[in-house]
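Sharing a chain and its predicted structure for anyone who wants a worked example. Both blocks are below, sequence first, tokens second.
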Amino acid sequence: MQIIKPLFAFFCAQLAFASPIANDELPAVGLVERTAPAPDATVQKWNKLPGVPSGGLTTGFSIFSAQWPRDKSKDVGLPDIVVNARDFIGSNHWVLVAVEIKEKTTGPPKKRVTNLVVNDVKFWDLSIDGDKSALHSSGREYKLDQALADKVTHSYIKKLGSSATISKITDAAKEYVKENPTYNAEKVNCKTFVQGVAAELK
């Protein structure tokens, strides 16, 4: 025991000296920093539109207004009230556009790459039926490339909350029509529809 005790004490001292806890040192841990997903080519097109935040679109829904240029040659055959509305707003038409962005991971297991992609793009707009307001397009596919070719002006409005869905946007559009049943060239038209529905969306 005389020999064992000193050896045991020496062994414990060596453990204490080597222990990172005894020396207030924590073992090094390798931290892996997650790189923010890069936008793909289609998302980049949306990011270039007026008003989009400097960081670009992020996952979830963002809404835009889309405004067609005023072209009186396309007024032929339209009711006077629609022509008057076009003159008043200075545009042939306005629609509300919702863009849904998601993350998408592709590539082989050891070379996986995650990008931001456009998952869905839909639009809503107001028309007239007699003298009544009518929901013309409700969640139809919106084609950005065609709109840009038609000289349509887009303006970013805002990012919607995580609970936003296509059906909720459609519900808000229907509610606008219900609350504004009579079309009016100045007060209830395609532009006021876009502004009114956008204001209700959270």
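Comments welcome. The longest strand covers residues 113-129.
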